[in-house]
Amino acid sequence: MDRLEILDCTLRDGGLTNDFFFDDLFVKDLYLANVEAGVGYMEMGYRASKDVFDVDRYGKWKFCDEEDIRRIVGDDPSQIRLSVMADVGRTDFQRDILPKKDSVLDMIRIATYSHTIDEAVEAVEHCHGLGYETTVNIMAVSNDTEETILHVLERLAGSSVDVVYLVDSFGSIYPYQIAALARQYADVLCPAGKQVGIHAHNNQQLAFANTIEGMRNGASLLDVTVNGLGRGAGNCPTELLVGYLMGQGIPCREEPFMHFIQEHMPALKKDGVVWGYDIPYLLTGQRNQHPSKAIEFIKECRTQYTDLLKELAV
Fold this sequence. Notes:
single chain, alpha/beta, TIM Barrel, eight-stranded parallel beta barrel, 13 helices
C-alpha cells in the first residue's frame, strides 16, 4: 500500500449496533459493493477470543473464523484486501491468528490504548512474522498528553507496523486538532516508512470533515462505514467520502453503495438497529467522554437532556 486507500469497517464498527448478527447476504452484498466501488480494504469484523466472549451472545463476525470469511469471498479474493481487528487483551494472538499462507486475510488491525503499547508492539511483530500487513489503532488519543502521544508514536516508528491510526474514539476532536495531530503522526512515522490512517466518529457531525482534514495532512488510509453505520453516532459515511474523492478525480464509484443502502439499510432499521447523530452522543462528544452513558440514556428512552448534562459533569 503506497497510495490513498479507503478501508470499509462497516461489519466491525456496525457490528457494535447489533452484536454482529449480520446474515451472509448482507455481508456478501457489502463485499461485492466494495469490490465494485474500488475500495482497497474491507474489514470483516473482529478476531475476538472465544475465551473472552460468549459465542452464543454474539454473531460470527465478532470472531471471523476463516471458514466464515471464505464462504463469503471464496478462496482467492484478489480484487480487495481483507482485514480483521484484534484488540489487545481480547485476542489470543498466538492461537487466533493463522499464518498468512493459511488465510484469505491480508491485514491484522491491532487496537490498543497508549498504556498497552508494549503489548500492541508485541502483537505487531507476531502478526508481521506470520506474513500480514499490520496497523495499530491508538484509541482514546484525545485523553492522552502530548508527551504520551509522542512516546507512543516513537515506539511504533521503531516497530514493524505498516500503518498507525489516528482515532477520534469519542467524536470529540475538531478539524483543526485533527490537522495538527495528523501532521504530528506523519512527522514521526513517515520518515520510518510508516503510513498514517484516520478513523473518525460522528458525535459532533464532524467525522466526514475530520477524515478529509486527516487526509489533507498526511493520512492515506481512510476508514468509513456505509451509511455511517456504527455504535452510537456512527462513523464517516462511505458514500460521503466516495463522492468527495470522485470529485477530486480519485477513481472510485458511489453507485454500488447506493444500491447496497437501498437494499439493506431500511430492513436493518426496521429490525430496530439504531445509530447516527443524536443529542446524547453530541453531549458525550463535546465533553470528550465515552458514549456509554449516551447509549444507556437512549436505551431508556429518556429525553431529559439537561439531566444528562448533570450526569456527565459528575
